Request: fold
Amino acid sequence: MEVVYLNGQFIPKDQAMISPDDRGFLFGDSIYEVTRWYGGYFFDLPAHAARFRRSLHETRIVWKDELKLEEITEELIHRNELGAECAIVYFQATRGVAPRNHAFPNPEVEPTVYGFARRHSINTLVCEQGAGLWLTPDPRWNRCDIKSTALIANVLPYQESHDRGYAEVCFVRNGIVTEGAHSNIFFVRDGTLYTHPATNDILAGITRKNVISAARDNAIEVVEEAVAADMIPYMQEAFYCSTTSEIVPATRISDQVIGEGTPGPVTRRLQMLLRDLIQSGDPRR
Ligand code: PMP
Reply:
């Protein structure tokens, strides 16, 4: 039986009820977070918790139990008997329930806070072989730094890329590559890593942060500078990364083959460095 967290309680999922007046449902007035559990420990839970709190702060959603986030996240793993498995924990907070009106509820209402845990393992085949990205205009708002559940502008291009046989999108805004629909994008040229700086045009991915620090700790130069879409043909390697997919080599971006069309050496090295970093969090080591 799947157990979820809803508004202070752990309950069977089929008993979880959310009002149709919930602002998450009506407006997408809501934020979320996704963390990874590696059969015994979380990878960089403090960073995910900090980003969730930042999203709460930026959206002015007030959750009085925000300091319990880590505890609830771990409890979801154990209540669902996922302790020895690889899993994700999803966590969401909406501005709560009130008759539909753009203004914040007055008087204030409690947020709706929901979490679930689910078995999850990475697609090792795609990490091994690489995948294609679809180059497409970035149609999103200018607060992509907030991890909002209002994801229709991510979902529509992602579905189109999927229908065309690609694994992810490569968004372009004002001629420069921003990120994927649910990942950050890196390029490699002459041994140096390039990725969009952590501005309001991208989500500052936790995997992105860890890839950058693993690279720097191992003498791989990283430049947080956006790559122009018309420079893609001059890039020797590319990859996308996220909590749920780790590092996936991008072997093609639309019609452009990247490098030899196979995962490159810097990408391979970073995949190993990220693995090491993840495993270094294992308390049993
Ligand atoms: N960008 C976007 C738009 C995303 O949705 C995600 C996945 N949450 C990422 C980047 C990667 O972030 P993270 O490494 O924290 O999963």
Summary: The longest helix spans residues 45-59. The domain at 3-119 is CATH 3.30.470.10 (D-amino Acid Aminotransferase; Chain A, domain 1).
